[in-house]
Amino acid sequence: MAPVTNLPDSLSDTLRHTISTSSSGDVAVSPSTRELYNELDKKINSYPPGRPYNVAIDTAPVTIERMPYIPSEGDKLIDPGTARASIAADNQHTHGTTDGGWAGIRKMETVVQQHCSYFDQDGHGIIYPQDTLIACRKWGWGIFLSALATFIINVNLSYPTQSGWLPDPFFRIYINNVHKAKHGSDSMSFDNEGRFVRNVRHPGKYKNL
To answer: N or C end: fewer C-beta atoms under 10 angstroms in the chain?
Structure first.
């Protein structure tokens, strides 16, 4: 491996393609990984340069693999660490989704409510199991897979969105309370109130939702 003389601005991208990872997503501490650490020497412990803090240390490999977002001079996005209530903003789309006037039309809905509106076939704020089934079928999924997804989604997300203590026998999901259905396996693109949070580990991950 050739010596590394300078750390690029996109260090996270470089390391993500260089460091091998295990199936669980953690760094696989292999000879090649250790060799990379040795080549970087202590520079990694003072990244980003010129800042009064560091975001990675070589004694904790996971901090190198999972680099957080670091604002750069000239970034168009103002206050990147501040959650947005109604727009999913990034450096390329500082005002959120503007196609078709989406951001303006949906400005009184949280981003997670906007995200779930795809499943609300008639726009009345309630997602019935048949709404979920139709939405899954529109993706090209087969009837059995769509039915399974519908069962998993509505059975698990219906109760948290209810306004009272009694469960809904029809397993309806109420979009006005959908922030209550946030779960541990989500993408971390939303906070507990349904606002959009720029994902500090994978800033562009919202595009994959």
So the answer is: N
